[in-house]
Amino acid sequence: MAGVPSLAGQPRVFLEHYLVMTREGIRGTELMQQVLKGVSDREIAAIARHYAALEPRAEPGPRDAALFERGRHVAQAHRCGTCHAPDYRGREQMPRLAGQREDFLLEAMLAYRENRRRGGDTIMAASLYGIAEADLKALAHYFAHLP
Amino acid sequence: MRRSACTLVAAVALAFAATAAWSQDKPKPPPAWWQGKPEAMKDSPLAPHPGKMTETPASEIPIERIKLPKGFKVEIWAAGLPGGRAMAIGDSGKKIYVGTRAIGRVYEVTDHGDKRTVRVVIDKLTQPAGVAFHKGSLYVMAIDKVLRFDGIEDNPDVAPVDLTDRFALPPEPHHNWKYIAFGPDGKLYVPFGAPCNICEVSKEYAQLRRYNPDGSGMEVIATGIRNTVGFDWHPKTGKLWFTDHGRDWMGDDTPDDELNILDKEGAFFGFPYCHAKGVPDPDIKKPDPCKGVTLPIANMGPHTAVMGIKFYTGKMFPKEYQGAAFVARKGSWNRTELSGFDVVVVKASPDGKNAKVQPFMTGFIEDAKARKFWGRPAYLAQLKDGSLLVSDEQMGAIYRVTYQKK
């Protein structure tokens, strides 16, 4: 669904953190905060295990070769793979970017850059500080089209 | 050596140029933390360790693995505080307030003698790491908020007074979670970290300030401090001793984290030009980078993440610990093999000379080479009976260390 991130195949620890913080009301949308109200730590751990075990099924739109290539360069120059893994499939507390929805990725990165996104790791605000919007668009396009 | 450093800088410059060429919008400064991550380390798998945001029951904490010098004992004093780190003891001595980062909560631990209960005082804050207690009030400082809870020990539901506007907190979040404490002068001491790994900073950052308790009378009392999240005042001299985190991405063994003394107000501690006991920065250069820099009294190990410091003023521990400083080292991420993950004791002259750093509380590392650990000691507090509390941010627990003569 537009703007809604894909959870399948995300790292277990990332999901656990994300779900706890959403329940606590410091991350995610109001709708998700309502959904997770009163869910226990134990249940959250189980939900995280479930989604982490699912096979991700990306359904990106048509690929723009130039934009994809530009995204690849920007990702390399900014060392995104250091934390998110060289294949951008994430690890531990760092989410999978490969195959994530393009619209979601772009909005998330814009929000980090503008300090609008609460609850995430401050290192993301620092990492995206000053990056041009056109570069963020390229990054989102590139990640969304990775397996 | 010199040549390879130049090559690195050239490679970094090239990478910047490549990024700039892809940008169509007006040129902007490079992302701050990205600076100083050289081309040679671009494939390094090192990244900060994940915290644990769910409760860990006491039964799942391997307390038996903790090692202490002979005669000391450790027990789990409180559990079920995910992310709990800095501790502020209430005036009654029965309640302890505990700050957190990512999970956004402040906990209150009530000591019933035989057991402890935990409740959440406030949640949904952005990294409320700073907690301090002063004249009946709890002060909480998040990255973007300052709250005061008056009389909270007797009135658990008291609504906080919002002091945010008075403190003029700058906007950058990175390294701007807080450790806060009241000094012997009754003023509130607040650090403002560098919003990057390594960078030139604007005038609001990389410094220590103090305020009147109501947020007025702000003074910048020290600069050139990358990220201090722990300080205490020497019981004899009244001088402020503070820990400071060294920068990342300069290799496994340099620079060391620091233990400093603020001897003269207005002192400059070297960031970003000069690290540890005189290591020039390879990225941010200037002539004589360590000139005029107050150097640390002790190197605390590379990447060890020095956190809380507490001078021991009790009588329970043996003489050699009385007046010494305990320092918690939360442990390294930017290092191939784990270092830190312990509490050390620093024995030094009152002026900081002849500082010796010795292990005190260890056993949190499972396998240093495989980068496996189970706990991360973060902060210290001393109870009235002279026992020492140690918070473990990973386990969300507080341990109590006691000593008994045989």
Overall CATH architecture of the largest domain in chain A: Orthogonal Bundle
CATH topology of the largest domain in chain A, by name, is: Cytochrome Bc1 Complex, Chain D, domain 2
Series of H and E elements of chain A: HHHHHHHH
Structurally, the number of domains of chain A stands at 2
The major beta sheet of chain A can be summarized as: none
Classify the fold: give the CATH topology of chain B. Answer: Neuraminidase
Radius of gyration of chain B, in Å, reads 21 Å
Read across the widest sheet of chain B, the strand sequence of neighbours is: 10-11-12-13-17
Major beta sheet of chain B, specifics?
5 strands, mixed
Tell me how many strands of chain B there are. Answer: 29
Question: Can you walk through the features of this model?
Answer:
The complex is a heterodimer of chains A (147) and B (406). Chain A has 147 residues and is mostly helical. Chain A folds into two domains: 12-53, no CATH class; 65-144, Cytochrome Bc1 Complex, Chain D, domain 2, CATH 1.10.760.10. In chain A, 54% of the residues lie in helices and 0% in strands. Chain A is built from eight helices and no strands. The two termini of chain A are 19 Å apart. The model of chain A has no long low-confidence stretch (mean pLDDT 92). Chain B is mainly beta and 406 residues long. Chain B has one domain: TolB, C-terminal domain (Neuraminidase, 6 Propeller). Helices cover 6% and strands 33% of the residues of chain B. In chain B, strands 10-11-12-13-17 form a five-stranded mixed sheet, with no helix packed on it. A four-stranded antiparallel sheet of chain B has the order 1-29-28-27, with no helix packed on it. In chain B, a hairpin with a 4-residue loop joins strand 28 and strand 29 (397-403). The interface between A and B is large, with 45 and 49 residues.
